[in-house]
TrEMBL record:
<dbReference type="Pfam" id="PF01061">
    <property type="entry name" value="ABC2_membrane"/>
</dbReference>
<dbReference type="InterPro" id="IPR052522">
    <property type="entry name" value="ABC-2_transport_permease"/>
</dbReference>
<protein>
    <recommendedName>
        <fullName>Transport permease protein</fullName>
    </recommendedName>
</protein>
<dbReference type="InterPro" id="IPR013525">
    <property type="entry name" value="ABC2_TM"/>
</dbReference>
<keyword id="KW-1133">Transmembrane helix</keyword>
<feature type="transmembrane region" description="Helical">
    <location>
        <begin position="12"/>
        <end position="30"/>
    </location>
</feature>
<keyword id="KW-1003">Cell membrane</keyword>
<keyword id="KW-0812">Transmembrane</keyword>
<dbReference type="InterPro" id="IPR047817">
    <property type="entry name" value="ABC2_TM_bact-type"/>
</dbReference>
<feature type="transmembrane region" description="Helical">
    <location>
        <begin position="156"/>
        <end position="181"/>
    </location>
</feature>
<dbReference type="InterPro" id="IPR000412">
    <property type="entry name" value="ABC_2_transport"/>
</dbReference>
<keyword id="KW-0472">Membrane</keyword>
<feature type="domain" description="ABC transmembrane type-2">
    <location>
        <begin position="39"/>
        <end position="268"/>
    </location>
</feature>
<keyword id="KW-0813">Transport</keyword>
<comment type="similarity">
    <text>Belongs to the ABC-2 integral membrane protein family.</text>
</comment>
<feature type="transmembrane region" description="Helical">
    <location>
        <begin position="193"/>
        <end position="215"/>
    </location>
</feature>
<feature type="transmembrane region" description="Helical">
    <location>
        <begin position="244"/>
        <end position="265"/>
    </location>
</feature>
Length: 273
């Protein structure tokens, strides 16, 4: 049984080791996470881009000329920012969640838990890698769809800010899901019954002003709606709600989820057995 003094000395030694090698550890884990998806970029980047383009071709062909959401904005142009943001969100979630569940199932999670990495460094590496993947896919979708649909960016700052925050939120949510899930079925349920519905019901393909009052109220309770609506504002300068209000909701959501993820990492919830 260690004495309180011995426990304090051990903790001080651990913190000292983290302060010396932590930045190297963060960079190494970040490099590993980026390399993990980039080595299979055809699957992790190119495939989602192709999926988004197919959505554009199908919905654009069916609804172009029949729907005008904003005055002077044709439907395909309206659709592009929604598809870009949907791709950013889904791929940011997929990156951190799939990485953790694979590490759990293959048993190599121990090699991440053993080095003197703080919970802040683990959180930063996983979420940053998720942001990089989400933004990479989003840029790919934007570049390809930009060849098919004329686009005008009203304010690049809003576009970048909401893309960054959206990817950060979904990367954090993927981290939480990956920590919580113990098998692929649980992770798939999390994605299929939470992430996918919340994304598709967030105004990717429509404006919530076209919905009945009840469903408008439901949409306003969906944080994903504010990410997509704020992102779309950066392109057209118009939105369903104030971009500042959207930014506030998105910022609060990120802080709450980050606090939860950091607590799970700090306590080792379902990570240390």
């Amino acid at each position: 049984m260690k004495t309180p003094v011995e426990i304090e000395l051990a903790e001080n030694a651990r913190l000292s080791a983290m302060s010396v090698g932590g930045f190297v550890g963060f960079r190494t884990l970040l490099y590993k996470e980026v390399l993990r998806f980039w080595k299979v970029a055809f699957q992790t980047v190119a495939a989602p881009v192709m999926t988004a383009v197919l959505y554009l071709l199908i919905f654009g062909h069916v609804l172009e000329g029949r729907v005008e959401v904003y005055q002077g904005v044709n439907y395909t142009s309206f659709l592009v920012p929604g598809l870009v943001m949907m791709s950013v969100l889904q791929n940011a979630f997929a990156n951190s969640s799939s990485s953790l569940i694979q590490s759990k199932i293959t048993g190599n999670l121990v090699f991440i838990m053993l080095p003197p990495l703080s919970h802040w460094e683990m959180f930063g590496a996983y979420v940053t890698a998720s942001i990089i993947r989400g933004i990479s896919v989003g840029l790919g979708v934007l570049l390809v769809t930009g060849l098919l649909v004329p686009l005008h960016v009203a304010n690049i700052g809003w576009v970048f800010l909401f893309a960054l925050l959206g990817a950060g939120i979904l990367g954090t949510l993927g981290l939480i899901a990956g920590i919580w899930a113990e098998k692929f079925d649980q992770l798939a349920a999390f994605q299929n019954f939470l992430i996918m519905p919340a994304t598709f019901l967030a105004g990717v393909f429509y404006s919530i002003h076209t919905l009945p009052p009840f469903w408008q109220a439901v949409s306003h309770a969906n944080p994903f709606f504010y990410m997509i609506d704020g992102f779309r504002f950066g392109f057209f300068g118009v939105s369903d709600v104030s971009p500042m209000f959207s930014l506030t909701v998105v910022g609060i959501a990120f802080v709450v989820l980050a606090a939860l993820a950091l607590r799970m990492l700090r306590t080792g919830y379902k990570l240390r057995h």
